[in-house]
Structures
1.
Amino acid sequence: MAMDVALRLEVEDLHAEYCAALDEGRYEDWAALFTEDCLYRIVPRDNHERGLPLAIMHCESRGMLLDRIVAIRETSYYAPRTLRHMVSGIRVAAEADGALRGQANYLVLQTLPEQPTTLFNAGRYLDTMVREAGRLRLKERLCIFDSIVVPNSLIVPI
Amino acid sequence: MAMDVALRLEVEDLHAEYCAALDEGRYEDWAALFTEDCLYRIVPRDNHERGLPLAIMHCESRGMLLDRIVAIRETSYYAPRTLRHMVSGIRVAAEADGALRGQANYLVLQTLPEQPTTLFNAGRYLDTMVREAGRLRLKERLCIFDSIVVPNSLIVPI
Amino acid sequence: MAMDVALRLEVEDLHAEYCAALDEGRYEDWAALFTEDCLYRIVPRDNHERGLPLAIMHCESRGMLLDRIVAIRETSYYAPRTLRHMVSGIRVAAEADGALRGQANYLVLQTLPEQPTTLFNAGRYLDTMVREAGRLRLKERLCIFDSIVVPNSLIVPI
């Protein structure tokens, strides 16, 4: 996996900015990390492995990501909470067409008001990244999560 | 975020040494990672965001960190336990004055004797780092934690 | 800790491939990350610190790792589950004999069918790495785990 060092660090930065944007509720900054024609999906592991189409969240463009953000902001019954993303095992490989394929493990922690911090969701990111206007962006991110027990609060991206 | 590669790795090393020193109970090594005139605070997220002054721990110099260490060592009712730090999303940016501003997400796990490992504390580090005698040191570290439910065992630094 | 940047990234890659191989059940790929004469041990922290010989798992060669894999595959009462490795605080230092000594914190999450994700095991990796046929390999990995409460499902490597 011969890979330019600067490019490696750029991928790590993309992950870090992604997590920070979500954790801080900067959803527009989060959406800006995707390409206009992106694919973003949150899928249970079993479904992914069996090739089943079901997804908890499915967005086929940055516009749909932005629609989603509006929906989150307008959902009044969504109790305030803090999410905290941890990412590990970042891997990346260049492909023949110039795109980058990447993956990483993630763990999202959740803290509800007056409650202790708990495990919220864990799984794997499967990414395709491209360079656009000089910056790396996500052309595709699949969030393949491990537990079929989906918290009913999974209305935000992970 | 154009950043010298060597400097980036140095910041990662600082995080790794910080965590290892705390996890191994090498508190003097931990204190040595700060500047003499450092600021170290552990603050609940709500208080930080509202600008409230309350802190669970507040040290305004390395001397105060060392005092704290003495207090920890002399606290006989503090049951032995293992803490384990996980850090993710390390970010760093150089500022005009030559200092480095950084942040990272953290998760601390706790294991009490004969007990399973549990989540102890999670949040975000907000740092200012400077170079002193050739080594990067923490001039300021704010530990902004997510859950207001503070374990009563939070008498050690995180 | 003056360390070649490329070598640092290579160590990170080794950790990432190790975790991905285990998480995806690619046990032969996992075993291929070790040298032929490797030592692999999973040891409770107390035993490690007191120098006691007890280990939950003890393999003295890659052949023993492969035997272990056969045993895992033939264990019919082992319920399917998903493991998810998170690694943090990767450190590495070159030694006089050309070997690399490394350590890192780890957290393994477990998800049983129809169950939420839970903490499975956390601790520290203590490694010796050598270069073999151009690739970094583990000559020794000690998994020093924090909680004496060992899940009865700890029959797979961590």
2.
Amino acid sequence: MIYGGIEGGGTKWVCAVGSGHDDLQAIATIPTTTPVETIDRVAEFFAAHPDIAAIGVGSFGPLDLDEHSPRFGTITTTPKPGWAGTNVRSLLASKLGLPVVFETDVGAAAFGEGRFGAAKGLETFCYITVGTGIGGGAIAHGEISHGLLHPEFGHMRIPHDRRRDPFEGCCPYHGDCFEGLASGEALRQRFGVPADELRAPEAWELEAEYVALGLVNVICTLSPQRIILGGGVMNATPLLSLVRGRVRLLAGDYFDTPALRRGIVDYIVRPALGDHAGVIGALELAKTRSEQDASHDGGVPRPGLVDRRETMIDSGVAGLPVANRDRDA
Amino acid sequence: MIYGGIEGGGTKWVCAVGSGHDDLQAIATIPTTTPVETIDRVAEFFAAHPDIAAIGVGSFGPLDLDEHSPRFGTITTTPKPGWAGTNVRSLLASKLGLPVVFETDVGAAAFGEGRFGAAKGLETFCYITVGTGIGGGAIAHGEISHGLLHPEFGHMRIPHDRRRDPFEGCCPYHGDCFEGLASGEALRQRFGVPADELRAPEAWELEAEYVALGLVNVICTLSPQRIILGGGVMNATPLLSLVRGRVRLLAGDYFDTPALRRGIVDYIVRPALGDHAGVIGALELAKTRSEQDASHDGGVPRPGLVDRRETMIDSGVAGLPVANRDRDA
């Protein structure tokens, strides 16, 4: 059996095909343009692999992940032009004619890291990405966390010392929330250069302070057994080490655990699946869900795995050609 | 079958006996003094009810809840004089000669509210108390959340505008963390009167701002389907309403859900079990765990439910009289 994985991002979509994380048979990167054009190109990629059983998608958000909602699968309030209100799940299911498992990009990455990466064997952990934006996915008791919506780590409020850092923050919704202060976009706006050209030590100290404040709040709420910290900004050489030091200091002596003292290097870690955590996690989500469904009596699809016939009817994407690949026909 | 429930707090311990939340046969409040004296008095109360099958405890913390830890059941870093390092679980199990299910006070309260109270039927929600201190318990996917440790909502870092509020915060570990700024103790130190004597509207506006900031961070991390907001400070008349308004404003248009708009009154709610959420939750934890154990083949105790014989040997509480109530003998 082979499966497809998609990590749908604001700048690029990464697509992969394979039987599992250790057997990727093809991978492609497609630049994000309009929803229809992007998904057309995604469909082209997958059309070359006619034996795919199901597709897993980890998408940028925020998303409507409520399977009972008429908008299940929709990107809701993104400032990304042209994408707000797009039902990515319906579009994909229609174009691909395949079952689609739909999740946030960071939820999929967390799932992948838990199965095969830096959180293998753990029940409760989280994956945080500090890139253009800041996002996080959490696994609690072995399951991807959803609730009212899904986690939105980037929009926590953290202390902002305006004497040290007069920058107002760049979040169009909240100004100086965690993402507004510490994302790659915040660095670019505050310092006038992209993160990978930023050298000033005091800039990285400030960034470490903000990232550590965000992490401490995650520790205080989710109590993760490990934090996986990825994203392009985290590649800056001193940052991870500075963040670990600041988290130790901010936690202080209150938390009586080696993980927040000497064990911090094994507590806040880089993704083991690197930049591919999202797409691998998405592919493995499709595989896992398909296997679960196959083992269910009666073959009733589990929530989240879209039955392809239902999708054809309910997709609400009028006039879009449906790829002639429905192997139920 | 009857069970015991204990909510162990920094100022009082509440003990209850009954067959379930709707059949409490006795309830007592014992002031918190030294660990040995307090637990002696707790044991006296339960000695009058010889048919108790198991005891559930929701204790103040922070706690070591790792059942593989040699300190499982210990209050770790509390500033409460005499209590840091006390193994409450061992002490109780030794004195009572009964299986003990051990949890945080707020974890037990969340469990109770989920079974019979304001979060009935929900899978993912949290219970927050704003009293002398600030604590929170979370349920994710139907289970009480533990991970590295347990949630510590009170020690999140939130924005602190020192021009508006020059008070440094009262947390002995972190100064102006959430608890340091918004707890009853913070109100008392900042305004010079206890919360229930505080009238100034601007004081309650400031308090609402801090509580709302904490809640927004909980929403961004746990994405609870509902937030139950209890504790003595929340009884101040305008506070809950002000908090709801501030959460709406802070969330802004980013979160595309009625719960953070007009539905806020059903999203941030008072505890349905009132001041008894903790003790009822603890009693129900004992009951649930006992019933689960009884339905297990072979009768192997589940993690968390202490076998009374093991407790006698491993309690590590030398010289303490063991109540002669081991009905295994």
3.
Amino acid sequence: MPVLNDEVPDEGDYDASRRRGEFDDITPDDFIRGSGHDNPPGWLDSSDIDRARRQLPIVYVEIVPVRTDELGRISKVGTLLRAGDDSAIERTLITGRVLFHESLREAVARNIAKDLGDIALPILPVSLQPFTVAEFFPTPGVSEFYDPRQHAVALCYVVPIAGDCKPQDETLDVEWVSPAEVLRPDYLAQMPGGHDRIIRRALAWAE
Amino acid sequence: MPVLNDEVPDEGDYDASRRRGEFDDITPDDFIRGSGHDNPPGWLDSSDIDRARRQLPIVYVEIVPVRTDELGRISKVGTLLRAGDDSAIERTLITGRVLFHESLREAVARNIAKDLGDIALPILPVSLQPFTVAEFFPTPGVSEFYDPRQHAVALCYVVPIAGDCKPQDETLDVEWVSPAEVLRPDYLAQMPGGHDRIIRRALAWAE
Amino acid sequence: MPVLNDEVPDEGDYDASRRRGEFDDITPDDFIRGSGHDNPPGWLDSSDIDRARRQLPIVYVEIVPVRTDELGRISKVGTLLRAGDDSAIERTLITGRVLFHESLREAVARNIAKDLGDIALPILPVSLQPFTVAEFFPTPGVSEFYDPRQHAVALCYVVPIAGDCKPQDETLDVEWVSPAEVLRPDYLAQMPGGHDRIIRRALAWAE
Amino acid sequence: MPVLNDEVPDEGDYDASRRRGEFDDITPDDFIRGSGHDNPPGWLDSSDIDRARRQLPIVYVEIVPVRTDELGRISKVGTLLRAGDDSAIERTLITGRVLFHESLREAVARNIAKDLGDIALPILPVSLQPFTVAEFFPTPGVSEFYDPRQHAVALCYVVPIAGDCKPQDETLDVEWVSPAEVLRPDYLAQMPGGHDRIIRRALAWAE
């Protein structure tokens, strides 16, 4: 059961011929423009990413999408419904690996576009100081965050979404509920692996 | 020479008959709606505010208005040109006292509307964690921040401005320059009392 | 029932003859040295503080005292047991008003010394960026924080305590419990007025 | 010329026979205890780390060591003098890669011990919220931070040092100067690759 969103389901789409030499003249904007149907530069094929996941921590961004009112207060929190590996529906946040030579801002924008579509109009934070850093370990119990596939260090941001959401890829739907509802134990219980804790921390930080 | 914006120039407009009893049924929105020509509830007449300023620290918000690009990066920083007490033009940020029974978010919104007008469309921060807290003392040299009138504790926020600015009140103009320009020593030198340091810290925090 | 610690119980000790003119040559260290049996400069008599409390927000610091292990993780959280106005025992955090011409750091140090004694050896934060700002209003329901006496803006800090605690003044005892215990609903329920929320936020921020 | 500290100089010490299977029963403390002469678990041999550096961003911690006074204010900032690859002396901060299955706190403690010795008595932060995140790219000009070897994402912390420093490994000396001195242009100019910017941001955040 995947806990952080993975590129593995897309690996068949990966065009290895595009990768070599492509970094020579790459610009940061390539990562944004590359966020459509093709995989962006920096993508790894499954054997490379599998090896890396056994060897060193992987950088992730994790985004709590929110709707805000005119005073900046969170009115709704968005969670994603996805089909997991075992066909069960799971509830999660927007997460994704930061690619080679991709900036954190580009990774945040790309992963939001991947899950919510191109007209979500996310308002990216002015500062990259994350509200929390979540450390996922492949060993249950080592930390509050568990990811069976890898050791991941996830920089977590709250991002207001000003536009319309068109769920894409594996995302079946985006559900918006009030902060009070999202904190209900039965709701949080649907987000395993520690994502419930990230939402708690996000709301504690946002007040 | 005023260093933090002051309500003193408006004191003649203050209608004391409005104050008593008005807090009984006040709602937070009153502070926003009250931000036009009349002074909002919580305003003090000049003898009351003068006494308070000799007795205890005063809560302020200080806002660095910015323009951001689609990745959240600061493209422009806004500074205000104002006519000071001695008719000299001075450059400053958006600052204002938090009124009795007014929330910080309301104070941020009200002070932006007061200086930039009603269609500035500020994007208030999701969290009230300030990027810095500036302590202004009436004694030069005690801290990096000096305000001859008072001891003020200013919570500082960077606020993206999405709309149009119509300078109002004592604000003669809003000038937008790039982060590199605003950090030029001759530019920072135009902002006395420590506001230059607040801009430096804002840009250090925003990266 | 007091919610934020108050100087009212001490007002009889206040020596008004010390105040006038004393600010002329004051230094920041006076506030620290002044933290013993006498009230420090900046203290207000009860009629002055009562008037101020009806007129403008009051600046507070609120401290969550903790014990940490060698990796900086919180092992224990401290709460204070105090005798309230109606002789009932109440559980609270370290809170106190910031005095005129007193810096936030001095206020944090003074209030810790007042409640925990002079050999508590607090490790003050390197940055004054608070983990949260709590806005207490005298009207129930306006915010998550309620203080019947006043509108207070409290900058909140987590401060590791490295030394021994000798409870002082109205503080009857300091109780140290693990983060898991302090988050138990029955424990948090003993801290009314929103202090339970400040502890929750402190632990969400500290991870 | 290395910009972030590297494990390459130590690669000959690496005992590959220790790695396989060792993660099965590993505990977080192993990383701390493993910080002496032998490389800790999670260390990679040079071909593995070289491959990873061409494929994905590497997680780093970067530490600004400081001396603080009793109010938590920075009195001195520490910088390291090291012998670079070309025998030139270079000035840097404490930096190091986060190893597989190592927590950020362990990485901070291990890297401080590696450079400053075992009796430095660092006071690790209560929260892992970094004051800044520095993104180093192998392409000059892409960001303010440049590392010819890799794309690194460095979480940056200010850590007070309470004990004695015994420079170790490649570290020749630790130099402590005041915040005013460290910000002098000629001093900052000795720290290439963006470490000067990290110090600027640290001091802007710490005030």
